[in-house]
Design goal:
homodimer; elongated; lipid biosynthesis (chains A, B); steroid metabolism (chains A, B); C-8 sterol isomerase activity (chains A, B); steroid biosynthesis (chains A, B)
């Protein structure tokens, strides 16, 4: 029989048999994520700069879609398909990420069905779609704006489900108010602000395209 | 103390103190919903026919958006904000609807957080947005397609969360396989098929508008 190790999550009565504590420190986890993200963003920024036609905003959007797409596929994809990550003894980085993040929201360790669903949809649909958005912007596809709009709306819907379910269940899943604000609120805030801005921009671009189409039709008549 | 009445839902160990059985029959519930929906659809069809410019497909879409918008706001809106519908003694129609539907998915009576979240978002955001879509099509707004696309995607995301959470929790919420297929599958199927068709149509229309815009820009050069 395995020795029972106490987990650091709230609610305290959550049962996690076989739990193995985090072996990486918070700063090590953040450093790896920060450095890898910076590498991805720098690479996309440099490569996109080769095309003289690309505006700075398009280049920033390509960086965002590469960053968010890889986060969805690798980090969230690992969670969605690893129900026993909290038992990992090897110090595997992605398991450590979710052991640490669960301090801000224990529903991850507890395998809440709503969380797994949202993370699964995000990893499987929005992840690859985000990488497609990098390609669509790079090559100036006509579906570029509607694709970016669709992914952003999916991200916003997922975040809404994430926060509303927690609210309805009593919002008592963080180990302390530090973890509540740093992880539960802080780590998710970008996925509210940026998709909102992108949605508004795409909505306006799409409306403008129909106005031009309308003017063209009027001229043809 | 209230007399304890046994509920007809599965799982059998679900606790619903104060439960009052359905007083309307299944056919009465369906008849009221069917007749009211037919009234709404007929009214929108007739009114939209007054404008000679509207295509048949636009008129059908206006009927759909009026029907789905009112369903979201009235039927699902009632559920989202009535945690104790299963205790209703007055035979109030909307309470009866959800008492009956819970035979296909007891998570409604059990007030599952995922269900309440999806129904709440649907009622509060997609309901009014659907009625706005009727207006947008009627008046030929430039945001007509992107709005229809956004609502359809929201409906599809909500339906995905609805089915995936149930699957992850063991898919054991129907009172019998009749209720499983008639209510859980049957009643939701339209909200997969129709939003999918509308999304594809809007996606194509939006891409076409950007192709025209691209051609126009090329000509200007």
């Amino acid at each position: 029989m395995e020795a029972s190790v106490e987990h650091p999550y709230v609610p305290r009565d959550l049962k996690l048999p076989g739990f193995v504590p985090c072996s990486l420190s918070q700063s090590a986890i953040l450093l790896v994520y920060g450095v890898s993200s910076l590498l991805v963003v720098s690479l996309v920024w440099l490569l996109s700069g080769r095309s003289p036609k690309k505006s700075k905003i398009d280049r920033w959007l390509m960086c965002w879609w590469a960053f968010t797409g890889l986060t969805h596929m690798i980090v969230e994809g690992y969670f969605a398909f690893s129900p026993e990550f909290y038992k990992d003894k090897t110090g595997f980085y992605l398991a450590e990420v979710w052991k640490e993040y669960s301090k801000g929201d224990s529903r991850y360790a507890a395998r809440d069905a709503g969380i797994v669903t949202v993370e699964g949809l995000t990893a499987v649909l929005e992840g690859p779609a985000s990488l497609l958005a990098v390609f669509a912007i790079a090559t100036g596809k006509s579906y570029s704006y509607i694709l970016q709009f669709a992914i952003s709306l999916g991200q916003l819907y997922g975040t809404a489900v994430y926060f509303v379910t927690s609210y309805l269940e009593g919002d008592h899943f963080a180990a302390s108010s530090y973890y509540y604000y740093a992880y539960y609120i802080g780590a998710n805030a970008s996925w509210i602000v940026i998709p909102t801005l992108i949605s508004i921009r795409c909505w306006n671009k799409i409306c403008a395209a129909f106005q031009i189409q309308g003017q063209k039709k009027a001229k043809v008549r």
